Amino acid sequence: MWDNVRRACGIYTKKRISCLRKNGQEVRNTSEMVYVLAEAFASICSASNCTETFLTHKNRTERIKLRFQTTKHLSYITELTIFELHTALSVIKHTSPGPDDVTYSMLQHLPEHSLLNILYMFNRIWKEYVFPNCWKYAFIIPIPKPDKDPQDPLYYRPIALTSCMCELFERIVNVRL
């Protein structure tokens, strides 16, 4: 009952992973546990878990070169607007920040001239198709699956905390598409 009360009040306890099992052996060293979880997540996402039909389709599709030349007058090709940025900022949910430590609350409290600078950066990304390198990284948080063995690395699901700036840009683009 008290866990439910704490959650309702927004109080979450951080539970550390004390031990994992790999090949019947206990792993307690943090660096080794990170490696064990990374291996487990990679094995779950590997191509060996996909059907032959899907892999054939995937390989065929990935060989097709992307063409970014298109008609410039289409509405989704035009520059992003300050209205779109304000709209995206008004509907975001407050989530944990990614590797850059920028939070949605920070972005929502920026003055207008700073938002215009962000919009300028977003429009350069939109036109030039070049993304900031820091947007390519995320913090991966292992969340234990309920009612499963917490020592088995296969019973964790990875949650990726990406840059809030990247997510804001994605939100604007997704609304257009």
Automatic annotation (TrEMBL):
This is RNA-directed DNA polymerase from transposon X-element. It comes from Araneus ventricosus (Orbweaver spider).
